[in-house]
Amino acid sequence: MSVYLDHAATTPARPEAVAAYAAALATVGNPSSVHAAGRAASRVLEDARERVARSLGCDPVEVVLTSGGTESVNLAVKGLWWARQAERARPRIVVPRGEHHATVDAVEWLERTEGAVVDWVPLDGDGRVRLDALAEALRDPDDVALVTFLWANNEVGTVQPVAEVVALADRAGVPVHADAVAAYGQVPVDFVASGLTALSVSAHKVGGTVGTGALVLSRRTTVEALVHGGGQQRKVRSGTQDVAGAVAFATAVELPHEPGSRLRDRIVAGVRELVPTAVLRGDPVDRLPGNAHFTFPGCEGDSLLFLLDAAGVCVSTGSACQAGVTEPSHVLLAMGLTEDEARGALRITVGHDTTDADVDAFLAALPEAVERAGRAGLAARTPTLGRR
Q1: Calpha distance 309→322 (Å, rounded)
Q2: How far is CA 199 from the centre of its chain?
């Protein structure tokens, strides 16, 4: 059995959530139907929505259930942009660099096809949005449709200054969306207290099932729908609602969520001791409690991943693989790293079922993996003489 240290990608479904999901599958009826079976299904669904809302500090009517974080982000970003254009032309989207590809690809699609103007805000060396640059981007807000940003970076784990970002957007009179998929279940997330317009989360990051998420949308906010049909959820999202997925989601978020910082700190200390050249990336203090992200000079992240996987340890790199081509992490590049530095990235993330033995296994396997990856990297960079 592999040691699993990639909880940022997905965390194993909690047994209680699986049991609740299986039980809810026996619920008969479409929750939008008006007969007895439909009303029974609706009661189960709305109870789950209320429980999810409590975990997010919002009203149940503000929770729009979706198929996951990617849909939630797309609905927020595209839906807000379209709604703002319906009022008058506001083409600009203000977005920090280093965002998740759900946001990056959504805003770039709007740029290519809809005439949006993407205003990229730089990050500092720890992966935090530069507030001075954000303030400058909002200095003349008349053409700004929205601000969208990560609550916490999904790669390097840096928690963003949410209150400051929202305050700047609020003073400019601009709606603001936060992608809280990585933050939810790791740090406190309170929608009303944050002052956000919209917030995206995903169930499988907190021990629910894949295929369920939510967009929290302020009751005073209107967005254009991505999908049209029955208009089941505030005419924002159409489609028959997944009762079982919502129940599993609600069950998972109500379970205790250990912060994970003790095991994370063991990983950080162990890596620094075993590989002194390794560099911790992201803010050393204001970071997700379950996230340790390093770059290893002279190594390729993919080589480290495969070598650790062969040793029975599952982690991830900071690279994005698109169309079969491995590229340096756009997050690390936005933080000012060179391409060579960014290629040696490794993200280790702990979760609800991580144990000290898991950390021990990772630390035991790491030195050989680094040594072998370093040899491979050196060989790849050493020029050879061609034959005549």
Answers
A1: 21
A2: 11
Q: Is the domain of 130 the same as that of 265?
A: no
**Catalytic position from the list 58, 299, 314, 321:** 321
Tell me the pLDDT tens digit for each residue of 13-58: 999 999 999 999 999 999 999 999 999 999 999 999 999 999 999 9
Q: Where are the beta strands (DSSP E) in the chain?
A: 3-4, 63-66, 92-96, 117-121, 144-150, 176-179, 198-202, 213-217, 279-280, 291-295, 313-314, 320-322, 325-327, 345-349
How far apart CA 67 and CA 71 sit, in angstroms, is 6
Residues ≥6 apart with Cβ < 8 Å to 283 = 126, 127, 128, 157, 158, 159
Q: Tell me the C-alpha to C-alpha distance, in Å, between residue 259 and each of 57, 262, 263, 291, 309.
A: 19, 8, 9, 10, 25
Check if 314 is active-site. Answer: no
Question: What's the chain's length in residues?
Answer: 388
CATH of the domain at 315: 3.90.1150.10
Looking at the fold, whether 171 and 77 belong to one and the same domain comes out as yes
Please tell me what DSSP assigns to residue 119: E
Looking at 254, 277, 312, which one is the last position of a domain?
Answer: 254
Please state the pTM of the whole predicted model. 0.94
d(CA 326, CA 190): 36
CA distances from 227 to 79, 144, 220, 240, 258 (A): 10, 25, 21, 12, 37
Beta bridge partners of 201: 214
Q: Of the candidates 219, 238, 254, which is a domain's last residue? A: 254
How far is residue 386's CA from residue 35's CA, in Å, rounded to a whole number?
Answer: 78
For residues 113 and 108, what is the distance between their CA atoms, to the nearest angstrom? 9
DSSP 316: B
- Look-up: residue for tokens 């700047």? 168
What are 139-182's pLDDT values in tens digits? 999 999 999 999 999 999 999 999 999 999 999 999 999 999 99
